[in-house]
């Protein structure tokens, strides 16, 4: 389906979400932000969907904020969800960015908001806002230093110089690097690999990783005990052990 500059397609147990405004380099306006938020709601609500892939149409991931729309008073930010309806959204299911072409400014922030990044070797990541003056608050300043070494993050943030997909892998920013045009296919394959795992366990891992950021160890173990209690009591935990004992693939229900 297509709505307000965003296409949504189900591929097996994955929701493929494509920003579809190639005439505007897949930049984000208010309509795109609302449509991305709706797609994430669909991903979260549908128990048959296990993961999502976010990409852009016709060889460009996203050039970030639609400046023309912004000058007309439109906001690409949704209260409580942040830039593009994604940057601050609370999600339990894995989301993978499949980056072809440019992921600039807010486009890079969308990629950083995802859990994994697959990039074409000729993709371009960049934060050129410092060359123009203002910067946005979609997570670049806080998330990039969490993903790559401090001095390298500052180099990208302070110079505005672009980073190729090949270098992004060397920096640890990208999980996989592909030949040009193959990012979506590889991301979908990675999503299906994740889908074979227990959905409650995936959600717990994501929650614990987020909780571990700057939290004292004693508090973190308390969070882990809570998550472990939920997992141990779940039907999926019993199914996983039963499937192992019976030497078959588990049939996850997410319960």
Automatic annotation (TrEMBL):
Concerning SUPFAM superfamilies, the annotation shows: ClpP/crotonase (SSF52096)
Q: Which UniProt keywords apply?
A: Lipid metabolism, Lyase
Which Gene3D superfamilies does this one have?
2-enoyl-CoA Hydratase, Chain A, domain 1, Lyase 2-enoyl-coa Hydratase, Chain A, domain 2
NCBIfam families per the record? Answer: PRK08252.1
Identify its protein family: Belongs to the enoyl-CoA hydratase/isomerase family.
Listed name of the protein: Crotonase/enoyl-CoA hydratase family protein
> What species does this protein belong to?
Streptomyces kaempferi
């Amino acid at each position: 389906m297509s709505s307000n500059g965003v296409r949504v397609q189900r591929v097996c147990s994955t929701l493929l979400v494509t920003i579809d405004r190639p005439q505007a380099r897949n930049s984000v306006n208010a309509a795109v932000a609302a449509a991305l938020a709706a797609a994430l709601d669909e991903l979260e609500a549908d128990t048959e969907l296990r993961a999502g892939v976010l990409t852009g149409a016709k060889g460009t991931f996203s050039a970030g904020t639609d400046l023309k729309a912004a000058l007309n008073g439109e906001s690409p930010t949704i209260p409580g969800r942040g830039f593009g309806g994604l940057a601050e959204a609370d999600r339990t299911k894995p989301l993978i960015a499949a980056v072809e072409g440019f992921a600039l400014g807010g486009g890079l922030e969308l990629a950083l908001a995802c859990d994994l990044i697959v990039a074409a070797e000729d993709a371009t990541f960049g934060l050129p806002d410092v060359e123009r003056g203002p910067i946005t608050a979609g997570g670049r300043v806080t998330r990039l230093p969490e993903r790559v070494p401090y001095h390298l993050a500052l180099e990208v943030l302070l110079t505005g110089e672009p980073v190729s997909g090949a270098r992004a892998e060397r920096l640890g920013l990208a999980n996989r690097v592909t030949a040009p045009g193959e990012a979506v296919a590889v991301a979908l394959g990675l999503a299906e690999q994740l889908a074979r795992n227990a959905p409650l366990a995936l959600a717990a891992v994501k929650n614990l990783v987020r909780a571990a950021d700057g939290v004292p160890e004693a508090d973190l173990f308390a969070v882990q005990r809570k998550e472990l209690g939920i997992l141990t009591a779940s039907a999926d935990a019993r199914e996983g052990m039963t499937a192992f004992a019976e030497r078959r693939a588990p049939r996850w229900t997410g319960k």
